[in-house]
Known about the structure:
By secondary structure, this protein is mostly helical. The chain is built from five helices and two strands, in the order ααββααα. It has a two-stranded antiparallel ribbon. A hairpin with a 2-residue loop joins strand 1 and strand 2. Helix 1 (about 1-35) packs antiparallel against helix 5. It is elongated and about 55 Å long. The two termini are about 20 Å apart.
Amino acid sequence: xxxxxxxxxxxxxxxxxxxxxxxxxxxxxxxxxxxxxxxxxxxxxxxxxxxxxxxxxxxxxxxxxxxxxxxxxxxxxxxxxxxxxxxxxxxxxxxxxxxxxxxxxxxxxxxxxxxxxxxxxxxxxxxxxxxxxxxxxxxxxxxxxxxxxxxxx
Length: 153
């Protein structure tokens, strides 16, 4: 049980980081979209690592909604699942743990797609986005550790 609580705590902390980074990227996206930013972003460190180019690209939105905002919402939902895993009894924990596992896989697949687009189409990377890819990987490991017994995906 202590080990599960440790994985829940790690997942909660990384979900908070995911929300913080995603909200920063959402704000940055709107600043770029409406011309509110003066000068370059502090994470533009080279022609390869250019947050402005990535955040202003067509890959930064889905149906006019910033991908970063969708990411922030997914991390918030993950935190709610973590609260459920911690608060519910043994029998009820399986459902939020399963949903946390599935959502973590969804985030990893989205990260792979976005990393591919950054590397091969845009040929630019955003440091915050790369950090979110790493956060998603850590959360997938946590989801694996928190999965219910006898879980078959």
